[in-house]
Amino acid sequence: MRNEVNAQDNSNNIPNFQAKDFDPNFATLEDFEYLRITETTDIPLPETIISVNGAIIAEAGDMTTISGASKSGKSAISGYIIAASISKDVKDPIPGFNVQNNDKGRAIIHLDTEQSKYSHQRNYIKILRRTEIKNSPDYLLSYNIRKLSLDEYQPTTNGICEAAAKQFGGIHMIIIDGLADYINDVNNETESRNIVKYFMHLAEKYNAAAIVIIHTNPAAKGIEGKERGHLGSECQRKSQSLLTLIAGKDDVSILTAKLFRNAGKEDFEPISLKYDKERGYHVYFEAEREEKVQKNELALVHLCIKKSQVVLLVQQMRLYRRILHYSCCTSIHILLAPVQMHYKNIIT
User: Fold this and answer.
1) Which residues of 60-95 are buried (b: 16+ CB within 10 A; e: fewer)?
2) H-helix or E-strand containing 123?
3) Residues 145, 176 contacting (CB under 8 angstroms)
4) According to the model, what pLDDT value does residue 99 have?
5) How many CA atoms lie within 13 A of 48 on its CB side?
6) What is the DSSP letter of 270?
7) I need a surface site. Which of 40, 115, 221, 240 has the fewest CB within 10 A?
8) Helix/strand/coil (H, E, C) string of 193-260?
């Protein structure tokens, strides 16, 4: 995996990504040289903005998608990302979930299209509480644009990004909580392609990580839903990575990977999050289940060694650990059935 590197200062060099004018009848290859990539093209290593256990989730200049059902914790994840960006001492850190601190003081832009102003402010205060920062930094720009008309969304976004880049010497990340609200119909292919292309261009123009949040189709608790419509399919195709939240029982959600462009899904261990009423936000939830994992893995080891099935041991341990990550969401007896078929009386 790539190591995190310092980003280039883009304060005085925000590029213009409009296509160059040319006459097709008189064009030469020189007209398109600015688009060409070869082994000698000078391309700086992108700054890693978010990584999980070494797997790159978001980089400067690219788009990442976070999906999930309603009330599954999507805003909680975006809030954690913001908190870890503005503070190196975030409370209740999620193990292995690394967010590049915004030590250059570039703009962090958060646009919410869904929540009321009251709910928006309440979540904003939770972000600060998680960082022990009393007064939010000037570069943290969180806007509630729900009351705007659809025609105003993109011009407003353009204006905020351009002004923020100039004032703060660049943009660290852009978080869009409600991508679907930027278009009329999530099942319209043209609209879906255009809005995804739009945020990909914003990410590249400002060398920032663009993180868009979308809903999944309704599904039973513990079941992974598909991202809504053609918009969801386009996000799957174009995103650097796609993380999804699966809502489970007892206020527990599972954050898992659907796709990576720079890693394999096996590099991402699902993360369990539970809403803590006292703290008022989601926290990492693993202790009880990790103890159960170790206990049952030990039982598998003893049985497989006894039967001299070393290869099967490795396979079943991988299967067991992955299944157990979902055990809080759905009936454990159903999920563990494949293992129980081979190893009766081990998992109860």
Assistant:
1) bbbbbbbbbbeebbbbbbbbbbbbbbbbeebeebbe
2) helix 117-131
3) no
4) 95
5) 17
6) -
7) 40
8) HHHHHHHHHHHHHCCCEEEEEEEECCCCCCCCCCECHHHHHHHHHHCCEEEEEEECCCCEEEEEEEEE
Q: Which two tokens stand for residue 167?
A: 């004032």
Residue among 249, 256, 236 at smallest CA distance from 55: 256
Nearest to 303 by CA among 341, 333, 342: 342
State which amino acid sits at residue 279. R
Name residue 158's amino acid.
Answer: N
Neighbouring residues of 25: CB distance < 8 A, sequence distance ≥ 6: none
Tens digit of each residue's pLDDT (9 = 90 or more) over 67-125: 987 777 788 889 999 999 999 888 888 888 899 999 999 999 999 999 999 999 999 99
Q: Which amino acid is at 175?
A: I
90 phi, psi to nearest 5 deg: -70, 140
State how far the Cα of 161 lies from the Cα of 143, in Å rounded to an integer.
12
Tokens representing 333 are 């007896």
Phi/psi for 230 (5° steps) reads -65, -30
The contacts of residue 284 (CB under 8 Å, 6+ apart) are 92, 93, 94, 95, 271, 272, 273
Burial environment of residue 332 by CB neighbours within 10 A (0 to 12, 13 to 18, 19 or more): middle
Taking the C-alpha atoms of residue 140 and residue 172, their distance in angstroms, rounded to an integer, is: 10
Closest CA to 66 of 56, 74, 58, 76: 74
Residues 292-303 have pLDDT tens digits of 555 555 565 556
| Per-residue pLDDT tens over the stretch 179-208 | 999 999 999 999 999 999 999 999 999 999
Cβ atoms within 10 Å of 287's Cβ, excluding its own: 8
- Cα–Cα distance between 97 and 175 in angstroms, integer? 17
Distance from C-alpha of 341 to C-alpha of 133, rounded to nearest angstrom: 52
48-285 CATH: 3.40.50.300
Of 79, 192, 174, nearest to 136 by C-alpha is 79
Q: How far apart are the first and last CA of the chain?
A: 38
